[in-house]
Amino acid sequence: MTRTVAGPRAGRARLFVLLGPAFVAAIAYVDPGNVAANLTAGARFGYLLVWVLVAANAMAVLVQYLSAKLGVVTGRSLPEVLGERLPRPARLAYWVQAEIVAAATDLAEVIGGAIALHLLFGVPLVLGGIITGVVSLLVLAVQQQRGQRAFEGVVTTMLAVLTVGFCAGLFFSPPDPAAMLAGLVPRLAGADSVLLAASMLGATVMPHAIYLHSSLARDHLHAPSTSTPRILRATRIDVVLALILAGSVNIAMLLLAAANLPGREGTDTIEGAHAAIAGALGPVVGVLFAVGLLASGLASTSVGAYAGAEIMSGLLRIRVSLLTRRLVTLLPAIILLMTGISPTWLLVVSQVVLSFGIPFAMIPLVRLTRDRELLGEHRNALTTQVLAWVVAGVIVALNVTLLWLTFAG
């Protein structure tokens, strides 16, 4: 006799099927740029800036939910909605800045993968960048051949791998509980900590994650009979769970550095921080950390290429193969690696470029999700809208501060 799942169990099963897009978008929050910032914060200031990551994650939950809601309710991505509303000259100009942001994102992620391969196997950086690009091609091929759900599965698996890799060190060297709690109190210690806090908080919400999440939520497979309120409920759960995981990984990296790297030389680079971690906790932890970095680079560069394709499709109404786009966008990163410029410096520059793109993604998102004509009954409530504008204002202001402090030396 066949038994059917009914009642609450059936409801939970259907809800589980709706989860996934936020875990792909969350990769943007644990990319190599975040790794560099978190390790630097812990090595230089100990537990002082834990509160920054907690605040950044809280803001990211709201931003990513609004992006996903736009895709669910309208059936269109943020680039598509903007492409429909902007006149041609403005649409082309908007696309140019979005492409520059996508290129900067790709640069950071390919460099992260190259550094990880160098740490693990001694692979030269240029060859490591090429290998990272080839593997990302294979990941994107999964999306092309097997669909979005399979792609989500691959990326989520990489997210699990990097979580283990970055968090493993805490089991060997647990953080100081009292100092960790003290780090939740908002405070700073001089101009250098202000710059680093602005970098961590202002650059947490990445433009490509905002563009992409609306697309992922739009395309995510769900039963036609599922109501929009139910999908939005699942979306909220998806976003909260994914960003709790990503935020925990970021905090774990800072705590690992705070407990083991203060006072050690050379921790201003990922390579130096890796060497210090391996020296303090042993080669096994060093290998696990490098594996986490590799998973971060491979997953984030695949997601970045996906985001770039969606940006082009929405704004230019040109659909380019993900594999073709991956090959084209890989070239600038490989060329820069061939110049011999410090990879860590290139990561810093890429984060500065990303800062320019934040207002162009944040401000339209907040405005559109309040539009009654566009979202109808699902538009932002007044309280949500006020909070969204506050978050957007804080993020934009911190990115402006980051740019000013960077160029002012």
Describe this structure in words.
This protein is mostly helical and 409 residues long. It has 19 helices and no strands. The chain is globular. The chain starts with 6 loop residues before the first helix and ends with a helix. 50% of the residues are buried.
Short structural description:
With 409 residues, the chain is mostly helical.
Q: Give the overall form.
A: globular
Strand content: under 5%
Average pLDDT rating:
88
Distance between the termini: 74 Å
How many separate helices?
A: 19
Helix and strand run: HHHHHHHHHHHHHHHHHHH
**Structural class designation:** mainly alpha
Low-confidence stretches at least 5 residues in length (pLDDT < 50)?
A: 1-6
Rg estimate, integer Å: 21 Å
Helix share bin? over 70%
* Strand segment tally: 0
Largest sheet: none
Keywords:
409 residues, mainly alpha, 80% helix, disordered N terminus, 19 helices, single chain, globular
Layout of helices and strands, plus pairs?
Elements: H1 7-17, H2 21-25, H3 32-45, H4 50-74, H5 78-85, H6 88-121, H7 125-146, H8 148-167, H9 169-172, H10 177-182, H11 191-202, H12 207-219, H13 228-260, H14 270-281, H15 283-316, H16 322-338, H17 343-368, H18 372-375, H19 382-407
Helix pairs in contact: 3-11, 3-13, 4-11, 4-12, 4-13, 4-17, 5-15, 6-7, 6-15, 6-16, 6-17, 7-8, 7-15, 7-16, 8-13, 8-15, 11-19, 12-15, 12-17, 14-15, 15-16, 17-19
